[in-house]
Amino acid sequence: MKIAIASGKGGTGKTTVAVNFALALEDVQLFDCDVEEPNCNLFLGFELEPVEEVTCLFPEINPDKCTLCGNCADFCRYNALAALPKKILLFPSLCHGCGGCSFVCPVGAVEEKSRSIGIIEKASSDAPLKFFHGILNIGEAMATMVIKSLLRHIDESKPAIIDSPPGTACPVLAVLGFADYCVLVTESTPFGFHDFLLALKVAKALKVPVGVVLNRDGLGDSRVEDFCRDEGIPILLRIPNDRMIARLYSEGIPFVKEMPEWKEKFEDMFETIKALAFKSTGVQ
């Protein structure tokens, strides 16, 4: 079972929930797919080792063969190629590696080369939790490709907790499209409610069942709670605006380590998710 931990915006406590949830369970995997800012390991402190370099193909124009017809630039929807009167210009960071430019070139002047866009790392085998994360190279835009490479390392025989990027853009779609269940972490503030609705719309479009974790419960108002009740969306867990939880967070310590009563609460949430996910897919 693959459980995505997502949120409509950053700063809602998504990573805190993902890390504590994974540490509270036995024999699970944790994947940090927020490849532009992976920070789960700030709480875990594992020694990491490289697993895979993620590469992307990009075109290289052979000027001796190129007839400057411009087919390649016309085809590219990402504006990675521009046809000038005497040259084809390439902007590698805009290229998505689809290979279409080489396909439409009538004289075979487009050759594809490989370049690194990121890396996959994992915790050492003696770590208490199976943990992987991806890192997108600075300046690169292909987060989705790194995420897909990262998700291929999931062991399908064990539950996987996936820390999703925040927001509703393509990297989030790459994670939610892969998940069996989505936990949306939010807070009852006007901004939290607004971005929660956006993230919920994405999950519904992808037909992924959703439950909610209310973080900093007790602050703000009841608009998220009222909405969930009216829409039949389960609130899986409430994490209060607690001074000790805030202190542990500021010190980079997962609160389940110092507050063992939360381990049972996360275990109960896991059992609820399994029941809801099986029900939504018709599994008995």
TrEMBL record:
Q: State a single Pfam family of this protein.
A: CbiA
Give me the segments passing through the membrane: none
Q: Name one GO molecular function term.
A: oxidoreductase activity
Domain spans labelled 4Fe-4S ferredoxin-type = 57-86, 87-115
Q: Which domain of life is it from?
A: Archaea
Q: Where is the signal peptide?
A: none
Can you name this protein?
A: 4Fe-4S ferredoxin-type domain-containing protein
